[in-house]
Amino acid sequence: NINGKGEAIRLYCAYACLQLEDYRFPNRDEFLAMKADGTLDFGQVPMLEVTSTMPTGEIKTQQLVQSSAILRYLSNIAGLHPQNDHLTAARIDALMDQETDAFMGATIATYAARNGISLETEDAKAKTLELLSKDVLPRHLNHLERLLKESSTGWLAGTEEPSPPDFQWYCRLALYLPENSDRFAIKLEEYPGCEALVKKFQSLDFMKEYAAEK
Questions:
Q1: Cα dihedral sign for 170, 173, 174, 175?
Q2: What are the distances in angstroms from CA 169 to CA 104, 141, 161, 164?
Q3: How far out from the chain centre does Cα 206 lie?
Q4: Residues 61-80: pLDDT tens digits?
Q5: What confidence category does residue 1 fall into, taking pLDDT thresholds of 50, 70 and 90?
Q6: Pick from 95, 176, 184: nearest CA to 132
Q7: 102-127: pLDDT as tens digits
Q8: What is the rounded CA–CA span in Å between residue 88 and residue 176?
Q9: Residue 127 near residue 92 (C-beta atoms within 8 A)
Q10: Over pLDDT 70: what percentage of the chain?
């Protein structure tokens, strides 16, 4: 029961007024059991389970995994994804992929063994976290600063309303980095554009109701 990569999905559903049954594992054992018996495609979460009626009348339930793919799907069914502006749609996709790239090292450092990386010694862990804090994450956040300066709306893709990457980056900036401040020495106030994005997101009308319901 953590924010994780599922939080952007929860936020997007709340923003787009999409009904979502938000199931949280009561304990890790249930997750491991579903992973072991093949219930979860690719053995991972977040997972969106979608029930739909097929043209034949058959009711079918399908799984969607990978948070970016889930957000693209939700954006499409909510009618919020650019349908006729292919360049903006591609820009949205690129910004989502960039979020993955930016935090790839941090994810691997957190789940090293799962990714076939050995960080067994304290020295290796310390050096990895130092590189992430002083080089990798600042480099990506500075790229984000430039994009936000170029945006005429304050949203990453220059859209009038927030698009999926704004939800992903908000969760990283406002939740993930503070929750991991003991590992990654990133001060958001050193990135005014990113800080402004967080405040802009938090000022959205739906956020007050979402925060009250959590």
A1: positive
A2: 14, 10, 15, 9
A3: 18
A4: 888 989 999 999 999 999 99
A5: low
A6: 184
A7: 999 998 887 766 666 777 778 888 88
A8: 27
A9: no
A10: 96
C-alpha span between 71 and 75 (Å, rounded): 6
**Given the structure tokens 């002083």, which residue do they identify?**
134
The amino acid at residue 39 is T
Q: Give the sign of the dihedral formed by CA 79, CA 81, CA 84, CA 85.
A: positive
Cα distance between residue 179 and residue 15, in whole Å:
23
- Note whether 171 and 11 are within 8 A (CB): yes
Q: In this structure, are strands 59-65 and 47-53 parallel, antiparallel, or unpaired? A: antiparallel
The position carrying tokens 């923003």 is: 15
Q: How far is CA 39 from the centre of its chain?
A: 23
Determine the Cα–Cα distance for residues 63 and 211; give it in Å rounded to an integer.
Answer: 28
Q: How many CB atoms lie under 10 A from the CB of residue 147?
A: 17
For residue 53, give the 3-state DSSP assignment.
strand
Give the CA-trace dihedral at 155, 156, 161, 165, to 10 degrees: -130
